[in-house]
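Weekly puzzle thread! Below is a chain. First person to post its structure in token form gets bragging rights.
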Amino acid sequence: MKKVVSLLLVLLLSVSLIGCGNKNKSADAEATPKVGVTIYKYDDNFMSFVRRAISKNAEDKAELIFNNSQNDQAKQNEQVEMMISKGVKALAINLVDPQAAATIISKAKEADMPVVFFNKEPSVEDMASYADCWYVGTNSAESGVIQGELIFDSWKAHPEWDKNGDGKIQYVLLKGEPGHPDAEARTKYSMETVVDKGIQVEELELQTGMWDSVKAKELMDAWLAKHGDSIEYVVANNDAMALGAISSLQAEGYFSGDKFMPVVGVDAIPDALTKIEDGILVGSVLNDAANQGKATLELVLNVAKGEAVLEGTEWKLDENKAVRVPYVPITLDNIQIAKDCYSE
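Winning reply:
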């Protein structure tokens, strides 16, 4: 009889331990939920820093499934379906094409899946179509205004840049992806701000470099061959294109001796900060990758755990369910602000 009782006790203890083990495993899974993330393309300079910030902030908090959409919206749509099938608790989506947001939202709705878009903003209508979607990014117009102020201030400080003495800035502009909210706003507001502040401008060239250094260099090569010294300012929607333009200009002897061409960008990525320190790049506009990645992770982690989207964060939502990370003008005078964003 004693043997039977002992055997029963052993069995009960075993069941209890198994139950505790499963419970702990379940609690661990809840503490580190599986989150699906897409990046429109990995070789975008700025997005590489956002991706790093998302990963850094997810340590010991979430299991991330990262996807490189390779600038292919059809591929991204398939990746979203794959992540949903793998049982992710929430999605963080850097759209290839902002106009495809409705397709992603439809897939998320069907799976009852919360989604946080970042960097490329869906339309107001798309955002309003689903209660469980949010956006992390910036105020696109702000970057254009700040860049315009940088152009104005630098031009006023260097009257020698007006090569033909006509009081106007003859400029070329490297535009990002057509239709991208940042590209459209930066293109519009940068030069409008210069004019509003009292300097006349003349556009010599405006073409898309698709955010890409190589494409920007090719365009700058062609523009220098066509316009030569008639170009007085190079305006780029992002630093990658600004760096491509600088490469082209250096090949033509600029930034050596007294031969100089003012160039401004947006993002304030590390390579651009080096050019500012070297006296080559006039300035940039800090597009805070560290905080955009941090905000994206914090929001998507909250909704993955079934908590309120802003629970325990410092962020605020605007009327379009968006967190707006502010831009900061960066010149040599305050370059440390941007450097601090990239420190580990």
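Puzzle host: Confirmed. Bonus trivia for everyone else. Confidence is low (pLDDT under 50) at residues 1-29.
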